[in-house]
Write a structure and sequence with these properties.
The protein is α/β, with parallel strands linked by helices. The chain has 40 helices and 34 strands. 34% of the residues lie in helices and 14% in strands. The radius of gyration is 43 Å and the shape is elongated.
Amino acid sequence: MADKDPRKRCSPTQETQASGNQQQETERKQANTGVTQNETRQMVQARPETQVSLDMASQLTQLTLESKSAQICSTGSVNVPGDYNPSFHAPVSGTVNIHYNVTANPKDAPPNQVPEIPGCSSTEPCTQGPSPSTQDTSQPFKRHHQVPERVVTYAEMHTAANSCEAALKSHYKSTGSYVQMIPWVDDDTKHIMDIYTTLLLESMGEGVVCSRLELESYQDIFFFKTKEGDAIKRAILNGLAGRGKSTLVDKMAYDWAAFSQALRMFKLVFVLKMCALEHNSELIDAIFDQLLDHDTKIDRLALKEFIHSYPNGILVLLDGFDEFTMSTAKICPESVLGIINRKICRECWVVVTTRPSHINSLMSKQLIQDPFTHVLVSGFSSDNIQEYVTRFFSTEPVSAVGLVEKIQSSGVSSDLAKSPMLLLLMCLLWRNNGSLPETTTRLYDQAIQYVFRRKADMSPEEMSDVVIALGKVALVGLLSPDQLLCFGERDFEKSALDAAVKVGILTKQREIGQGLKVYNSIQFIHKTIQEYCAAKYLHTLSEDEFQKTFDKVDRLDEYEYLLRFCCGDNDACSQIILRMLERCFFTEQKEAYAPVSKMLSREQHETRRTKLALSCCLESQSKTLPPVDFVSSVLTTEISLSDWDRDSLHAFSFVMESVAISTKKETKPYLAKVQSVNLQSCKVGKFCEDLEHSAGAMTNLEQVNLVRCSLTATNVSNVASSLSQATTLTKLDLSHNKTLSGSANLWSPSLTHLKSLKSLTLKYCSLMPEDWRQVLLSLSELPGLIELDLSSNNEMQCSGNICFTHLRYCKCLQRLDVSNCSLGGTDVTQIFTSVSYLTGLVEINLSLNESISGSASQWSNQLEDCKHLKKLNLKHCSLTGGDLMQVAASLRKIPNLMELYLSSPDVEGDPVAPRCYLEQMKPLHKFDIHCRITSASVLKHVIELLSSATNLVELNLIFSYQLENSMAVWCPHLKQLKNLRRLTFDEYRSELQDLSHLALAVGQMPNIQECVISHEYGVFDFITNTLLSETNLVAITNGGIILNLSGCSLSGEAIDTILETMTKRGDLIEMNLSGSTLTGYKAVWYKHLKNLKLLRKLVLRHCSLNSQDVKEIREALGAGSLVEVDLSQNE
């Protein structure tokens, strides 16, 4: 027994003599551990300047350093200088067991770098003893105050770290770099660099300075900082099953092992599977258990010391927190959880992956707390999908292209492919079959059969029984109020559960419930798999049971995939579901059954529900005609589809084809009543080709619009071929399809099949000069074409080489629009020359071709020959004064011209300047002069000149800033325009209070129907802080005038003047004064309300009216003819 006298101290110079028994015991332990006294001296011996000694009060004959693993290393004298050495009260003789780690730290060693120690080489480490995890963890851990395990030098740490680094990199680049392609296929693997594709990562913003944003790569995770500028060293990768979290972790490890620049900041990277960890598992144990060879020579204690000493160079990747058995017991500080919550290794870097179901547990106070980076792993984007498939079929590029095209052709496939797991299934099926099924149901049929064949020896009947047994449980979960996705083992039949887990369509995870009870949580690998199994179970029910099941469902449209799978290749179920959808969504009772969501408009809901019903028809692949009421609700007189994807359009064409080929007499009227088909911003896919099966039955089809549909040459050819059967088709609009650029030679010849076509629109198609030539050549074979719109194809750039001569062969052409096409003077010359042969052509639009500025001398003579012209638009062509003179001279020789649109240079103070061409405008019915008049006197003179144009019914003038607040000068002269019906002022900037002068003048114009003020600049303080655009001041309707002054912020006095003028007309039926501050002015203007005998509607929104104002306004209105008053949004 040791002497308990505290006064006895060990001398630093004496040696304690051990007894014979003690010496024998020491030799026995040394023999067991394989470490001799000399070897121990070599391990502990340091350079003279780093030599350590023990300050002891008594003479020690032997110092034994005994670790927790029972390793005994005998040494000679060991000196430990310093002021913080512990004092030992020990006997004069005997063995002293010191549990304290002693390291030698050179003064010049950097804090985060293992120093090279000259003259000191590592020795063979001691044989490892029992796992440190076997120690008693009931007492608080105080590493720096316990007795040392043994002495560890920097050389040993350096050697252990280097050896570990080499071993890890070898592992990550060899077996660790091969990814198991799918959980249930053990022998199907690929190298990670052959299959890895960048995922869509999105920072959620917790604990970081930035808000939610999309990350360019996983490397960004390591560069987030706190508001104080400190690096954030904890990160969570959160994503659904199959989104690629584990593969991302493997890719990080491989990048580090392959010396990627992204992770070179880390000396060691540990990838640990949390499913293999226990609650108290220590990091060092997990490393040796999961990553290092069992016969490794790496010194466990030295590696542990390195991790604790240099945490900033350590990255720990913990994969699968959702598979970890979490305990509510106190976290052991030395465990992996202690690293997560920063109890130890605070400065090391930790990344944890988890599913959303466990994110709250991970973000609890016990584990990860702020600051940390929360990253959402969203799976693949469309570009990622293409990259993944290309990598998968790296040696089969043709297969890769085929599969990408197939996926992109289907919105459903594209959506499913965002999940790496489901995309992998598609790749496997494509690799085996060279194709994918046409319907989602058949895709899942083949996928389920594939995984069963790989892992289970079952007949098709046995596989079906397993799926149906799973489906019974799956349906209960789906129809529960919270849509259960996790189940217990007892919920399933044991045989079905075992088979499903074996093949991999179910996953089993350990969970801890109340009272620390451990149980297994069962989940389907993807929600769509759960819905598929549920549908297979529903197929086994009787019709009554099937109907009763869905009678319990409040919102059928929330079960899209369940309904689709139910209809899959099952005619009976599809008819029931379509009738339910028709009853819920396509009758008057639908409001009570399915209320409109606050997030979607009713129109959006109807569209979504229509798409669902059509998809169900497609999944059924039934030859039976869908319910009649459903067909009549889909095939209407005007079919308008906007933003539809390929799947929805394919389903729509499937229904049309079913109706077309049906032999039932009642189906004929449905397609026969269709008069127009309008597709806008749709992904047409096979629709253009499928249209061939139904176009012939549309015996009254007149118009087809395919706008912004990214049409290809093949699409146009298919459309033209299909519509050639529609003998009543007269209008075709292919606008905003820039994908047609440069390929007119492939698609324009097909237009010649449309013999009945009268109107063709190809604006905004980015047609090139050669495209123009091909299009005009083809259209010359359409003798019935009367309207051609080629506007906004501004890739011409004044080419001057377009062959417009083919226009002369379009004998019936009446209207030609080539505005905004970058035409030059030579082009315009050819156009006027060609159309001069067309006696029926009455309208040409050449506006927005600024390149013809100064070129009127080239084409004005040809313009004279267009005797038949009635409407000419040269607006915004930057015509010079000389151009206008020549144009005016030519117009004198065009007797039938009724409408002219011009833009001229600014008229600055000379009232005679516009006379030269205004005199020629007297025969016009409509004159739009886009001329910036800078003087009130000039404007007055212009009005006087136009007053003699007795046919003038529409006038459009543009203001300049010099005309501000000058209405009192020129407005009185407007009354001279006695026949004018529409008056428009562009870019009006004056104070709107001056509108009283305009109102007074308009009140004296007997034929005026509409006065429009278009304001370009936001110079007024409107209630809604928006620009005033096209304020319809006065508009004529059936039986009266509408006065619209909304948003003008007029004062009460201004309104008083306007109303006083309007009451003299006696035909004001509607008035909108919204946005004016009227409170306090009621005594001035409201008295006029009683004189508006024909007023039917009064709108006073946002007028700052109080309750007293409202009361007096209502009293002033009296009975009269008023039927509607809007006083909303007032005080």
